[in-house]
C-alpha cells in the first residue's frame, strides 16, 4: 500500500474518530497496514495527523479549483456550494484542521500544516472572487460556515451565500463611488 493510500485511510480514521480516541494500534488497523509499514511512512501519531491533513488539503483545494470555471460572485457562491457538500460528506463534525489544532495546540508541524492549508484557502477564495480585498472577509465566512455547519447544516451554507452576495454588492457599490469621485 502506498503512502498516499495510508494517508487517505488515516484521514478517514481521524475524521470519524477524532484525534484523542484512536490509538496508534487502532490507526494501524484502520490504515490496513502493519505497524512497521505505518511507522515507515509516519513515525509518530503527530506525523500521521500531518499526513492525513495534507491528503485532505489536496482533495479540498482540488474541489475549490474546479469552481474557477466561473468567475467572481458565481465562482465564490460555487465554492460555498462545494463547502456544503464537503461538510455534509467529509466533515459533519467540523473542520478537521481546526480540530487538529485543538488536539495538538503545541505541535509546530501540525500548526504549520494547518496554517499553510488555511492560507491556500484564502488565496483560492481571493482568486475565485476576483477581489483580493475580499479574501479575508470571505475566509471569515468560510471558517464561520465550517464551525456552524455541525449545528445548522445547510442553513449555514445558505446564510454564508446571502452574506457573500451582500458583500459583493457592497464592494461593487463602494468601488463605483470611488471611481466617480
UniProtKB/TrEMBL annotation:
GO terms for molecular function: DNA binding. SUPFAM superfamilies: Homeodomain-like. The keyword Transcription regulation applies. Residues 23-42 bind DNA. Pfam families: TetR_N. Keywords: DNA-binding, Transcription, Transcription regulation. Residues 1-60 form the HTH tetR-type domain. This is TetR/AcrR family transcriptional regulator.
